[in-house]
Please model this.
Amino acid sequence: MQRVGIIDLGSNTTRLMVIAYMPHHSFRLVDEVSSPVRLAEGVGDDQHLQPLPMQRAIEVLRMFHTFCQSTRVQHLLAVGTSAVREAANQVEFLERLQRETGLPLRVLSGKEEAYYGYLGVVNSTTITHGYVIDIGGGSTEVTEVYERGFSRSFSQQVGTVRLLERFVQSDPIGKHDFRMLEQGTADAFADLNWLQASPGSMLVGIGGTIRNLARIDQKRRHYPLGRVHHYILTLASLESIIGLLRRSDATKRAAIPGLNRERADIILPGAMILRQLMHQGNFDAVLVSGSGLREGLFYEHFLKELPSPLVPDVRRFSVNNLAHLCTYEAEHVNRVTELTLSLFDQFHPWHGYGAWERELLAYAATLHDIGVQVGYYDHHKHSAYLVVNAALNGFSHREIALLALLVKLHRKGSVDTREYQAVLNHDDGERAARLGSFLRIAEYLERSKSQVVQGVRVDLEAEPIRVFVQATGDATVEIWAANERANLFRSAFGRISPSSLRPNLTRIRANNGDFAHPTA
Model:
C-alpha cells in the first residue's frame, strides 16, 4: 500500500492524518496527530499573524514533516486555511516556513476550502441535496450540494477564535457579552440568503467544533455508540448545550463530559454559529460528519484518475473497503450473499420486508466473516465489533446497530438488542432475528466454503415448509449443518405458522450434479 500524509494548518488546530491506500481499491487511516496551534490568536484588524502563534505553527509543522519522513509517507499534501489566507504577512510566514521546515504549504481560497469540505462529506454520507457547514477557528464555510455536485459556497471570516476574541470578555459569559455574540453571529451571515431547508434536503456539519458538540450530547444521553460520524444533533439539544455552556466558567466547562479541554473556551462561540445557521435555514437537526476538508483532499488524491473524485455508491464502497481490509474470502462471501438474498426473496410472503432490509442484509452477508481477521473463535462477535467501530460510511446509527446484530447472528446465538436500544426501533429485534435467520442458513449451506450449494428453492405450501438445495456435489455436511442451525429461523417465524416451525432442507439435482437423500 502507498501512504499519503495530509496536513491541515487551521486557525485553531493543526492536524496530520496518514492514510494507507491502494488506488481506486481500498484505504485505511493509519495515524492522526493534532496540536492546538491557535494560529489566529491575537490577529487584529490589521490581519497580522503574531510571532508566538507563527512560531508554534512552524514547530508543529516541522514535527509533522519529520514524522511523515519517518513513517514512509510517499505523498505529502499540506494546506493552510483562513488564518494564513487572510494574513497581511502571509508571504513572510510562508517563506519562513519553507526555509525552516522545507515544507511547501498550499494556501486554500475560501471556495477551495468549502470544496474540499464538500468532497469529504459527499464521499462519506448519502447527501444528495442540501448544505455543508464547516465551522473553523478563523472562518465558516457554507456549501450548497445539488445532485451530489458542488453548487455554490459562502465563506465568512467568522470562526470560533475570532468570535471569542471579539465578543467574549467575561467568564462565565455575561448577558451583555452573550447578546453581542448572538448579534455578531447574526450580522455575519445576514447576506447568506440561500440557506433554506426544503423537502429531502440535508444539513451536514463538519469540523472539530461540531464533532465536539456531538460528543457532549452523546455523553448527556448515555449514547451506546462511540462514533460521531452520522450522528444527528437536534436544535433542541444544541440549545440545551448552549444553556449549559452559558452557566459554566472555564473550570466547569473543562469538566463537561465529552468536551475537549482544548476547546473549552471556543466551544460556545462555535455553538452560536451553528445555532444561527440552523435557525436561519429552518433546520431542526444537523447530521454530523467525521469527514471534512482533510478527507476531501484525500479523495481527490485517491480518485485522481477518475473524471470526478466522487465515489459512485458510498455505502457499497465503504462495505467493500472494510471487507478488503479484512482480507475476506470473496467466493465464499459472494455465495453466502446469493443464498441469503434468495431466501429473503422467496420468504417475502412471510416477512413482508422491502428494499431497505434487503440492502442491509446484503451488506451484512458481505461483512459476516470479517471478524476472522481477529481470530476464528467468537469471530461473529469480532465481526459485530468491527462493524460498530470501523469507518462504515453512509449508514445511520440505527443501520450500524442492525448490521452489527446481523453479522453477530450468522453463526449462533439469539438477538440481544439491549446494547443498542437507544438507536433501534421497537420492532428491530424481530427484524434482526428474521433477517439473521436467512444469513445463518446461507452460511451453513456454505459450511465447507466450496460453493457446492448453488441455489435454493422454497416450497411455502408444504407443512413443514421445504427448502430444496441445488448442489453440484456431495452437500451432506451443508444440509446437516443448516438443519442443525435452523433454530433461529424457527424462533423468528414461529408466530406465523406453528405447523411450519422447521424448514426441511432437501437436496435436488443440479445441472451437473446427482441426487441425494432428503434430510429431515
